[in-house]
Amino acid sequence: MREIYFDNAATTRPFEQVVQAMVRCLTEEYGNPSSLHRKGIQAENILKESRKTVAEALKADPSEILFTSGGTEANNTAIRGIARSYSNRGRHIISTRAEHPSVQMTLEDLKKDGFEVSYIDVDCYGVVDLDKLAQAVQKDTILVTLMAVNNETGCIQPLELIGKLVREKNPLTFFHADCIQAFMKIPLDVGKTGPQLISISAHKFHGPKGIGALYCKKGINLRPWQTGGGQEMGLRSGTENLPGIAGMGKAVEVFSSHFSEYTAKMAELKQRIREGIEKSIDDIRINTPEGDSGAPHILSVSFRGVKGEVLLHALEKHGIYISTGSACSSKQIKAAGVPEVIGLSKEEAEGTVRISLCPFNSIDEADILVDALVTEVGFLRRISGR
Ligand SMILES: Cc1ncc(COP(=O)(O)O)c(C=O)c1O
To answer: Where do the domains of the chain lie?
Structure first.
């Protein structure tokens, strides 16, 4: 059966060039970048090259890029690093309840160590309330941490404006952005007013899993939470994951060189699917903002009277992969997290699915998806007597 993959916010298929770059590091360039001989130097050159590529994509300096094991570690390193290094200035952190668990659980953990966390309200798409955010910044606020593109709704936070507001209120407050769904999907430039810390993860843009990076602006002093041989500027000890790093560098290189084409293609397909659903299926709620206010690759839709997980498996029979938008446990589907905070009813939360695109999805696939949704949503509603 033909497979149609619309779960690209969960993970993406690596580019062929990424696989080749990784295989090269596993078969030929397998040296340790810390070794003094030629093999080590060749490996070190690959490491340097990838760091430069990632830095260029963010318009940062290579010395500001720290490789991590992925987005979760980048978020932890940023948040825990600031908390550990700057607790003498204050113990107050600001965020929202629409963040990824790698942020929310980290903040909840820090609360056990005496940090205070203010969660600011978000609107029906997940965009933070700017007035409340500005009001919440106090003298003892050491960090504001927000997700640049929401992984469930695709809404975009106005990063530059937030950075400006935060610094006006307290120039010593750091701003961290989880850009894991944003990097390679919307333009990111570590300008003067934007975030000073940015997390990214390679498997979201056709790179390998288990590798990511943290941009940390020069001058910020993060206290490492992993000690050892002092790799990665002393911030992350341990022999570097060279195949992963090479793969990530290659993914950035390939995606960056097609950025406008790829993002336009995803946005066009997203709009086609959105219009197809709106035209053919009633009793729905779209949780993704219109046009450029949403990232090009995420569309969240709540089908009232349908269970998202049941719909997901019904589409699987057509060879189509999507994901649910609400937290599920094996026995019970319950509204939790983002659906709750953006104001979805229990029925809407349970009926939410996320369709997420990549540049290699086609118009044909988009139309097949809409047709399958029309069939399956209609069928599921009929059998539930709705
Ligand atoms: C917004 C966001 N933050 C963090 C993560 C975690 O990234 P990783 O899977 O690389 O640990 C994800 C992954 O789904 C994400 O979407």
So the answer is: 16-257, 259-383
